[in-house]
Amino acid sequence: MFVSIRRYQRTSQIHSYNGWESFIRKTTRHRIAIIGLLILVYMLTLSIVSQFTFDTTLATKNQFNALLHGPSLAYPFGTDDFGRDLFTRVVVGTKLTFSISIISVVIAVIFGVLLGTIAGYFNHIDNLIMRILDVVFAIPSLLLAVAIIASFGASIPNLIIALSIGNIPSFARTMRASVLEIKRMEYVDAARITGENTWNIIWRYILPNAIAPMIVRFSLNIGVVVLTTSSLSFLGLGVAPDVAEWGNILRTGSNYLETHSNLAIVPGVCIMFVVLAFNFIGDAVRDALDPRIH
């Protein structure tokens, strides 16, 4: 018997993996996800390093002796109609676009987890919360953001709020579905029988087991929010027109598509690569965390 116990212990040690180790192992199997991660790391590193190595004033400084210059050693991507260096504007805009997008999604996740958990666990207010969220969900997120910004003005805080509100319902729905499934599990019933506090049950038993779908949705939604952020700025409803943000840069370049197409192509390609990178990573995270795939 002792031999079998020792054999079982050795076998369990061989096949036991820490949750994070298993997640990383499964995620890194996706070569496309690694490519997406490298793209994001490269862009973020370049953006951070630029604060110490680049003359970032070139992103906002008007140089009337260098209007609409083509790509050169001095200006790798050329200059815009105000003589501002396009390369510097794109690099500086990376940090702003990423910051707005990630902060917006994080806020949406926080409120989505809170509302979804309350709605899923407490049946008496489930209907009220979900009907309110259904009203918000019925409005296209881009249209809702346009309405909010048009009412309160174009600024970075208003843009973040508008993007967050539009994403809360989808996160709340995902969280509610997970909570409804988990609260029927035997270990949750056992915790109730032992007399554990309701909020303690939610914190210890439900949230840790319901968070995986939220991580998947978080990683997939960031790419969508990057696209929405740039779209709003392109429409003039995002940040101020002189701020170096990819949507703003693309809007300026769209006026010169026939004569200086690089002004629109460069920010457009950056947006495309970032959205693809986040989608690649999101797909890998979903494959790693979704038990139905395995």
From TrEMBL:
Coiled-coil regions listed in the entry: none
Subcellular location, principal: membrane
Topology relative to the membrane: Multi-pass membrane protein
A GO term from the CC aspect: plasma membrane
GO biological process entries: nickel cation transport; transmembrane transport
Entries under Pfam families matching the protein: BPD_transp_1 (PF00528)
Stored Gene3D superfamilies: MetI-like
Subcellular location: Cell membrane
PROSITE patterns, per the entry: ABC_TM1 (PS50928)
Sequence ranges assigned to domain ABC transmembrane type-1 in this UniProt record: 94-282
Organism superkingdom: Bacteria
Transmembrane segments: 32-54, 96-121, 128-150, 156-175, 218-240, 260-282
Alphabetized SUPFAM superfamilies for the sequence: MetI-like
UniProt KW keywords: Cell membrane, Ion transport, Membrane, Nickel, Nickel transport, Transmembrane, Transmembrane helix, Transport
Family statement: Belongs to the binding-protein-dependent transport system permease family.
Name of this chain's protein: ABC transporter permease subunit
